[in-house]
TrEMBL record:
Membrane topology of the entry: Single-pass type II membrane protein
Top EC group: transferase
Protein name: Hexosyltransferase
GO molecular function: galactosyltransferase activity
Family according to the record: Belongs to the glycosyltransferase 31 family.
Positions in coiled-coil regions: none
Cofactor(s), by name: Mn(2+)
Subcellular localization, as worded in the UniProt entry: Golgi apparatus membrane
Pathway: Protein modification; protein glycosylation
Enzyme Commission number(s) from the entry: 2.4.1.-
Entry's transmembrane regions: 12-31
Keyword field: Glycosyltransferase, Golgi apparatus, Manganese, Membrane, Signal-anchor, Transferase, Transmembrane, Transmembrane helix
């Protein structure tokens, strides 16, 4: 008999064989999974290279998303160019052009005008309504016969829903001639963003040849505007206005202080841009602004901001004297009050 103090009993032969088999199977399983993952990675890299047309290694997710976004924008702009080329080929007939799609014909508006206004300026708005902005049935007639849409543009109060907001809502319920930008808070320093939001809203809402911004103390000759715009229908990407330049003011106390003054060089002079009293951009340009709204930088003034967006684009700058609203002349389109 074996004594009780002779030490622990060794593992049985069967247990050793089972452990060895288990270890071997586990090794094969891990190796197989690693090989499968490697094959998946190779396949995904080759597929990404094939779809992007690049023979390089895999690109990041961010780069892929940027590539997709760029291609999407290129397709949109290409479609716009084709439509504009077709309109030029057909010629300008009547007040504004038309498109035929299948069994129906749709007229494209000539211009959408945004009249930028503020709280407490009802007298200015009423003066505009009495002078050149039709209301009620006449407003609908202006849209249907001349292809001109005009709306006052305003944001919301910092205290959303207060008396200022209610006054605008009450006024709009009677006149129905407002674009109320619910996502914009009215403030004097936020004017450039307001202009950008108007262009985005207008381009997304109405299909027009042109989009115009005008201040609420400017009077517009609608017939003269239509005639002037008709002469620019052959330009697919155009920026029209009373072009100017001027000094960039770096003094904080100055009325026209520019916080980003250092970006304009040692000469401290603005690049050429259209006056903010009134300017016009073509359909393709407005669509570009709408697509890229989140990355378009604004400066202290809306005219400089819009001009900065045009600098890097293949856009025709038109210095149109008829849009110099401060100097009324024969045949002028606008006049500042």
């Amino acid at each position: 008999m074996q004594s009780r103090g002779s030490g622990p009993r060794p593992l049985s032969r069967i247990s050793s064989i089972m452990l060895s088999m288990f270890a071997t199977m586990a090794s094969f399983y891990v190796a197989g999974r690693l090989w499968q993952d490697a094959q998946n990675r190779v396949y995904l890299i080759k597929e990404l290279d094939r779809r992007t047309g690049q023979g390089q290694s895999a690109i990041s997710v961010d780069e892929t998303l940027k590539l997709v976004a760029c291609r999407h924008q290129q397709k949109k702009l290409a479609a716009l160019e084709m439509e504009l080329a077709a309109a030029r080929h057909e010629g300008f007939v009547g007040q504004y052009s038309s498109e035929t799609n299948g069994t129906y014909s749709r007229k494209r508006l000539l211009v959408v005008i945004g009249i930028v206004t503020e709280f407490g300026r009802k007298k200015h708005r009423d003066a505009v309504r009495k002078s050149w902005l039709s209301t009620g049935a006449a407003m609908k007639k202006l849209e249907s016969e001349k292809g001109v849409v005009a709306r006052f543009v305003i944001g919301r109060s910092a205290n959303h829903g207060d008396g200022l907001d209610r006054e605008i809502d009450d006024e709009n319920s009677q006149t129905k001639d407002f674009i109320v930008l619910d996502n914009h808070v009215e403030a004097s320093e936020e004017g450039p963003k307001k202009t950008k939001l108007f262009l985005v809203y207008a381009a997304d809402t109405w299909d027009a040849e042109f989009y115009a911004k005008v201040n609420d103390d400017v009077y517009v000759n609608i017939d003269a505007l239509g005639t002037m715009l008709a002469s620019h229908l052959d330009k697919p990407r155009v920026y029209i206005g009373c072009m100017k330049s001027g000094e960039v003011f770096s003094e904080l106390s100055h009325k026209w202080f520019e916080p980003e003054w250092w970006k304009f060089g040692d000469g401290k002079s603005y690049f050429r841009h259209a006056s903010g009293e009134m300017f016009v951009v073509s359909r393709a340009v407005a669509q570009f602004i709408a697509i890229n709204k989140s990355i378009l930088r604004t400066y202290a003034h809306d005219d400089v901001s819009v001009g900065s967006w045009m600098i890097g684009l293949d856009v025709k700058h038109v210095n149109e004297g008829k849009l110099c609203c401060s100097s009324w002349s024969s045949g002028a389109v606008c006049a500042a009050a």
